[in-house]
Amino acid sequence: MDSIYDRAIALKKHVVLPESEDKRVVEAASVAVKKGVAKITLLGNEKAIKEANPEIDLTGVNILDPVTNAKTDEYAKLLFDLRAGKINKKTGLAEYATVEDAKKTILKDYTMYGALMLKLDDVDGMVSGACHSTANTLRPGLQVIKTSKNTPIVSAYFLMVAPESGNPFCEDGCFIYADSGLNQNPTSDELAYIAASSAQSARMIAGIDPRIAFLSHSTKGSARHPDVDKVVNAVKKFHEICPEEKADGELQLDAAIVPSVAKSKAPMSSVAGHANVLIFPDLDAGNIGYKLTERLGGFQAIGPLCQGLAKPINDLSRGCHMEDIVAAVAITALQTQII
User: Fold this and answer.
1) What is the tens place of the pLDDT at every residue in 186-233?
2) How many CB atoms lie within 10 A of CB 11?
3) Which residue, 85, 83, 87, 19, is CA-closest to 53?
4) Within a domain: residue 304?
5) Would 131 be classed as within a structural domain?
């Protein structure tokens, strides 16, 4: 993480944190500013935030109240224009009949407000999700920021940082786990594009040379099932779109990261036994996998971090620690160099 912080500090980016009602977020804003990780804008009423957190020094943190901000009307008009013609599936009516309707929404939904700030380049990135669901965090990103031109799919990964004591199967000090936060049951092609984004994140964010394992309950044909076929086809697609990257599959987890097992199960593989980017076949596996690694393995789980959006927005686990939020701010700053 030291390298990530150092690179973020050098960039001097500006990140908005919409969830000032959460003490962890307020503390993270203070720490991020004191470390110089990024300029921070915290959304909310300054008096209320300071009264709720008297022990936190907010010197240097920009506190912006959407209720009184002069640009709120501009943001409301932008949202109204961006969503023109969109129908609310529940009501069958227009999402926003008027600009005033859009304004009412953003004064209730500060994550949407932050996304609009990002759209107009008033900030460089956003981190949210400490007290909101992934859907509530990513919906504004998908509706306002949209998908990057470099990929057809937005996905989420966790940066899994090994404990200070190390881990015998983590050669680089960290893993990338994807998709562990967003796509429920990706197709073969979607897995391939998730892996492509993850390779870029490994290189640009974690600073490691990606060695990608497409995970399964099967290794090199040891089991036969449509779920295995999906992973095999994903590997083929990945090699078509990223022929220069090191990747293999299908691999069981032990074959992917344990050298002695890899020698037995996949002796011809250049990735098996040494993988640092793990592509899970579905969200169930990815979500369970990162939580097992965090809780039983003692790894720090930073994320879910988004890849594939046109501008950086990152989600947080509602069980996150303050330190995870600061780390997400640093990573968000680095993502400005990818997009």
Assistant:
1) 999 999 999 999 999 999 999 999 999 999 999 998 999 999 999 999
2) 15
3) 19
4) no
5) yes
